[in-house]
């Protein structure tokens, strides 16, 4: 297949590398030529364009069989989200819809679920997030689902949980740096997916995802923050992080959600095999790599 990966960052780059390994012709798009060498090194053909500027598409080669939108606004506020996710996706649809594209996969986020009651959410659960940025993601999904219905645009949406893997995993990194704090009573639920498994999920969605469908991309086990730190603490022989102060808790991001993500549809319908079914296997693998590289410098602490 001729594949275009729009946004070749933490996920897009290894995704491209894997697709190349599987024998596909893969183009990787970014906003600047700076990272070209990185793309070429793994066999991707670099393209430069900014998806917020539709005029940039004119110069791009086509057509493509598969397109993946893994662009990220790299944090940013509501307006940046609107430009990058909503308008960027709109421009991509307008550019690609008249072509012979076979599949378009978009990596949305489980932050579209606004539930705060710790309930199990599946793809049919309401998506009414309190945060303005997450509402932009809901709008972006709607744009794609409408295009799938009205224009036969072969869009498949993956709602991705917190991505971790090499050099990523916010709480884990903070814990290693002794900067982690247990928020509240530690009962907020974490939903995660290892980057390797997300790459597999995207490729499976390209091959067999049904256009107009949404799939949660999360691993098999949601875990509370407290239990996550307890597990790390036991494995690494390192103290638990302290509880956050009242002041720190008060400063916590508003609109924080609390829910368990069901991955049943991803597994049952797409049959995605998870290499790291839970954070235990995934982080064990990451810790082994760090340890072998001499980067897990933890002295056993007295209990
Ligand atoms: N991180 C998470 O835990 C998480 C959770 C749920 C969903 N997601 C989603 O997962 C996807 C992959 O995230 P990631 O961590 O791989 O992101 P990332 O590392 O920040 O990479 C994003 C890529 O998008 C490119 N990009 C940004 N704005 C662009 C624009 N206007 N036009 C063209 N390219 C643009 C960037 O390239 P240049 O900067 O070089 O232009 C970069 O290559 C994103 O869709 C993200 O929203 C992430």
Written account of the structure:
This protein is of the alpha/beta class and 303 residues long. It has a domain at 2-166 and 193-217: Rossmann fold, CATH 3.40.50.720. It has ten helices and 13 strands. The strands form four sheets. Strands 3-2-1-4-5-7-11 form a seven-stranded parallel beta sheet, with helices on both faces. It has a two-stranded parallel ribbon with strand order 6-13. Strand 2, helix 2 (36-41) and strand 3 (45-48) form a beta-alpha-beta unit. Helix 1 crosses helix 6 and helix 3 runs parallel beside helix 4. The chain is globular, with a radius of gyration of 20 Å. The N and C termini lie far apart (56 Å). The model has no long low-confidence stretch (mean pLDDT 95). The protein binds NADP nicotinamide-adenine-dinucleotide phosphate. The site of NADP nicotinamide-adenine-dinucleotide phosphate has 25 residues, from strand 2, helix 3, strand 5 and strand 8.
What is the annotated CATH architecture of the domain at 2-166 and 193-217? 3-Layer(aba) Sandwich
Class by SSE composition: alpha/beta
The helix fraction, in percent, is: 25-40%
User: Measured on Cα atoms, how large is the radius of gyration?
Assistant: 20 Å
User: Order of strands across the biggest sheet?
Assistant: 3-2-1-4-5-7-11
CATH superfamily of the domain at 2-166 and 193-217: NAD(P)-binding Rossmann-like Domain
CATH class of the domain at 2-166 and 193-217: Alpha Beta
Oligomer: single chain
CATH topology of the domain at 2-166 and 193-217: Rossmann fold
Order of helices and strands: EHEHEEHEEHEEHEEHEEHHEHH
Q: What's the mean pLDDT score? A: 95
Task: Indicate the low-confidence ranges by residue numbers.
Answer: none
Ligands, ions, cofactors: NADP nicotinamide-adenine-dinucleotide phosphate
